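dude i think i finally got it to work??
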Amino acid sequence: MLELRNLTKEYKRGDRVFNAVWNVNLLVEAGDFISIIGRSGSGKSTLLNMSAGLINPTSGNVLFNGTDIYSLNDNEVSLFRNEKIGYVPQGQSLLSNFSVLENVCLPWFLFKREGSPEERALSLLEKTGISSLAGSYPKELSGGEMRRVAIARSLINSPRLLIADEPTNDLDSETTAEVMKLLCEIAGGGTAVLIVTHELDTLSYGNKTYAMDNGSLTLQPAQQK
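look at this
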């Protein structure tokens, strides 16, 4: 489904050039649940952002079902991402003046579509266990509830791939377990899940773990379930 080929991202600091991501190769199949671990600054978020079509690579390819997403123009990339990829950014990403239901529906309206997303949005809120909060606003939610809304929002357009950057950051252990189980259910339904995490206790939920160090990606031994 998703294939990263020799993916590299260079940045400049003054006269110095450094590689945030260096020659990364990765294959993500339907139903995979892949975790990427690594120290702060190792290139994890940059890799996710390139995989999601948000940052252009310096070299290499990001293929989604054989389509190189960086061969598309800006509007085509935006549409492709909106239809095929769900993205849960790090931290709080909900719009404060939108209700929970409106936040979940938002990606639907970014491009012209027939019909209404409300029924599907309510179904996703039910699936994520927060249907009673449909009319609430972000300021009324806990951190775990906001993360569940962000996950529901990422699924509104039935993406083939869900990308999440530190989806359990700042959550307590019980809420972390609930979010990880939800992501497992999503992968079990055939949507590939690719996350960055620093919490080693969550690795047993996935089927593959990679470590990132100085921009390079390495497959890790299988985790105990």
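The longest helix spans residues 173-188.
im so relieved honestly
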